[in-house]
Every structure is written in C-alpha cells, then in structure tokens.
Amino acid sequence: MADSTEGAQHEALLDQQIQTFYQVNRFISSIRDMDQLPILIMQESETAVNAEASCIALHDPAEGQLHIEYAIGDANEEVRRITLAMGQGVLGVVAATGKTLRVDDVTQDPRFDSSVDRKSGFVTRFLLATPIQWRGNLLGVSEVVNKGGDAGFTENDERLLEIVANQAAIALENSRLVDGMVRSERLSAVGNMAASIMNDFKSPLTDIREFAQLLANPDMNSDRRRWLSDMILEDVDYYLGLAQELLDYSKGDISLNFRAVQLSTWLHNLTDHMTENLAEADIRFTMNVNFVRDVIMDEARVRRAVLNLLTNAASAMPRGGELTIVTDETDGLWRLSVTDTGPGIPADLRSNVFEPFGTLVRGSETGLSLAIAKEVVEGHGGSLTFETRTSGEVEDQESGTTFQIEIPVTPD
C-alpha cells in the first residue's frame, strides 16, 4: 500500500512538472512583445510554486554584477533598485555557484539581506532562487519568495522553478539575438539613409559651390552674373524640394500640387543645363519630343523624378554611351522614356529596383530616388516601369535600360 501511495505521489509530481513545462512553453511561444518576457516568467514562476513575490536579477558580465531589473510583489519598487556583486546575498551566491538555493528560514541564514524588508515592510520568511543559464553562461537569477501558507518550499518546487528558469534562458537568449539583429539592421538602415541623402544632395551642393566661386570673379559681366545667380536659386529650390520630398516619403504623405505645364518647353528647360556635363562624360544626348501639348502635373515633383532617371542613366555609362529622351501620347496618356546604353540591370537585382536602397549596379546606391519617383508618378494616376537587357541576354540587341513614365494628360 505504501509503495502504491509513493508511486502515485511520484506520478503526481512528474505530471505537475510536465504541466509546468508545457505551460511555460505555451506562454513563451505566444509572446509578441519581448519586453514583457521577464514579467511573464516571474508570473509563471509564482504560479508554479505558489509564491507571494518574485524577482529576476540579470547578469552584467562586463561589470561582474547582478542588477534586479524586474520584480513583482509588495516590495517591487525597493527591490528593483538593488545591485549585487557576485557572491553577495542569496542571489549573488546562486549566481557564483550556478546552483539552486533554498532557504527555509531567512532569519537563520547570514546570506539573506534584510534591508529590503526594513524599507518596504514586507516580511520574507523563506525563499528559493535558481540560476538562469544558457550553454554554461549565466544570464541571471530567478527568485521566488514565501510559499502560500505556512509551509516552506520543497524539492519539487526546486524542480519546477528550474524548469521555468531553463525555458526562460532559451527565451531570453532568443530575445537578445533578436535585439542584436534589429540593432544591426537599424544601423544598416541609418547608414543607407545617410548614403542616400548625401548622394542625392551632393550634385546640387557641388553646383552651388562652383557657381558661388565664379560669382566672386570681379571681371564677370552682369548678364553672366545674373545667370549664375539664377542657377544657384534653382539648385537651392531643388535642394529644399528634395529635402521636403524625403520627409514626406518617410511619413508616407507625398501631396501633389497640380498645374498646367507646356511639356516641350518644360523638358528643354529641365535638360539644358545637363548637356555640357553629358558631353564631358562622352555621353551623346538625344531628345525626341513627339508630344508638345499642355499637361496637368506637379511640376516640381515630376521634374525631380525625371532628373533622377537621367542621373541614374548617366551613372550607368561611366565610359560614355547614348542617352535618349522620347515623349509621345497614347490613349489619353503622355509618355516619357529615358533610355541608356549601359550594361543593363542584372536579373537578380530587377525585383528590387523600386525598393528603398535598392541597387541598379552592384556596389552603387540608388537610395530613395526611384522609390519616391514611382510613388510620385503613381500619385498622378500613372505608372513608372522599366525594360532592361544585359549583354548577350537578347540576341542581336545591345545592352541597355529604358525607364518609362506614363501619366494621364489630365489626371483625375
């Protein structure tokens, strides 16, 4: 009879341990906010052993100290201000030895620090603490205080708390790995953003500097000086517009200001100042304007979108080539295409062309320019697409890329 009773008790304890293991895994798997993980671990620890309060001290390997970062119970505010050295107090002993420690009567154990009880009015009678370890590395210590009723913690409570601590170690380590990945991606995103902004702003800032230096020449005639002044103002307006566009894009709010624009005149004004630079880069520039009517558009934003296409096309031909602009009309849409004779966009990069910080050529940042251009064109009810081919991809055709804007002549 005694054997059967002991067997039943053993089976009941085993079942309790299994249920605790299952419960901990279930709630850890359901967590979406990892900041809540330690709180949930403590709550599950208290439930498993029927404790009145609990805390978790995290290990700082650089300082060799324990910091009580999380606590629930009547003394939580006072407890959370405590820092312990390795070997100091019950938590410090558990951290130093890596072993579970049960104190059945804190008044008889010199390792217990009663200062918290004195400050908070909380009365600690007995406690149980176990290390949180992952692959031999100490992550922290979990402690529960005062089992419900007058009885102290038991060996079974030790096993239950160790089960919770083992699962907590896995969850905490995963949380740290995720935080590390997020931090790395954030730094990478900041770097990409900075590179993109500098790349987009570099050209107008360089022009402004050169024009300002020329204005300092006292022998310059008034007409030339006025022309340089107008160019500086134009580049400053472009710079300010680009800055506002980046801010709007980051907020997901690119508003459009429509007005009537004579397409042929607008396009010639847009490309006039580029001709000399293209010639110096050994790029032959051709423009075929087959559609010359007025169109309704946000002139400033479409101007920057087209300039971005032209800049990308020129950058794709560092050793020279041909750059062609063509306009025409079909089915109530005016079309503008920009074609280069560069190496074409590799197949593995084509799906990312319009993504922020996508790349057209390996090692070359396109930043946000094409992503913003696409959003601006689509805001007009139009589309921005491209066709490309690399060398040998299409029989009897040279490499190159064409970006094409289509916008309703009169957008809704």
Full CATH superfamily name of the largest domain: GAF domain
Largest beta sheet: strand ordering:
3-2-1-6-5-4
Count of individual domains:
3
> Considering DSSP H and I runs of 4 or more, what fraction of the residues is helical?
40-55%
The helix tally amounts to 11
What is the chain-wise order of helices and strands? HHEEHEHEHEEHHEHHEEHEEEEHEE
- In CATH terms, what is the architecture of the largest domain? 2-Layer Sandwich
Quickly name the level 1 CATH class of the largest domain.
Alpha Beta
Distance between the termini: 89 Å
Strand content: 15-25%
Mean pLDDT, as a whole number? Answer: 78
Largest sheet: 6 strands, antiparallel
- What spatial form do the alpha-carbon principal axes imply? elongated
Q: Low-confidence parts, pLDDT < 50 over ≥5 residues?
A: 360-366
CATH topology of the largest domain: Beta-Lactamase
Rg value: 35 Å
| Strands, total number | 15
